[in-house]
């Protein structure tokens, strides 16, 4: 993505890429990975992902939780990890961690297209906090 942005704007390898990414409204590599994982988690929680992925995702719905304010949220249960080196990169752990870090406005999107739009705006604002985004 950075190489494509450099090609589009004719930048050298030593030039900063942030301004090009902002003008193209592209996410950085780390946010792009988070975007892909969050979309998979949205599909898994709404039943449109393959069943082997949906089985790995559990809503944090514990007995007695319904009376709490957190009972009305769509937060997911993060499974425990045995190996800290690779366990945190597994889909159930990394996906639920990313999902739980999103705002309620993003998570409560009624459709996949709305979710993707809100998610990209959320990640773009997190990546470039000094930029004011026009909500159209």
Mean of residue pLDDT values:
80
Number of strands: 0
How would you spell out the order of helices and strands?
A: HHHHHHH
CA radius of gyration: 17 Å
Question: End-to-end span in angstroms?
Answer: 25 Å
Low-pLDDT stretches: none
Work out the helix count: 7
Class computed from helices, strands and strand pairing = mainly alpha
Mind summarizing the main beta sheet? Answer: none
Q: Tell me the β content.
A: under 5%
Question: Any overview of this molecule?
Answer:
- The longest helix has 17 residues.
- The two termini are 25 Å apart.
- By secondary structure, the chain is an all-alpha fold.
- 49% of the residues lie in helices and 0% in strands.
- It has one domain.
- The chain is built from seven helices and no strands.
- The mean pLDDT is 80.
Brief overview, please?
The protein has 136 residues and is mostly helical. The protein is 49% helix and 0% strand. Helix 3 (29-45) packs across helix 5 (91-101) and helix 3 (29-45) runs antiparallel to helix 7 (112-127).
Write the layout of secondary structure elements.
Elements: H1 2-9, H2 18-24, H3 29-45, H4 51-54, H5 91-101, H6 104-107, H7 112-127
């Amino acid at each position: 993505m950075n190489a494509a942005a450099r090609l589009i704007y004719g930048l050298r390898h030593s030039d900063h890429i942030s301004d090009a990414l902002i003008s193209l409204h592209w996410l950085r590599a780390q946010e792009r990975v988070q975007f892909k994982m969050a979309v998979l988690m949205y599909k898994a929680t709404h039943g449109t992902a393959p069943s082997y992925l949906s089985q790995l995702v559990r809503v944090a719905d514990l007995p007695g939780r319904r009376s709490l304010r957190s009972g009305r949220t769509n937060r997911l249960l993060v499974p425990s990890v045995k190996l800290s080196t690779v366990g945190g990169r597994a889909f159930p752990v990394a996906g639920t961690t990313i999902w739980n870090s999103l705002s309620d406005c993003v998570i409560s999107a009624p459709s996949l297209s709305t979710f993707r739009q809100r998610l990209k705006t959320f990640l773009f604002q997190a990546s470039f906090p000094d930029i004011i985004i026009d909500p159209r």
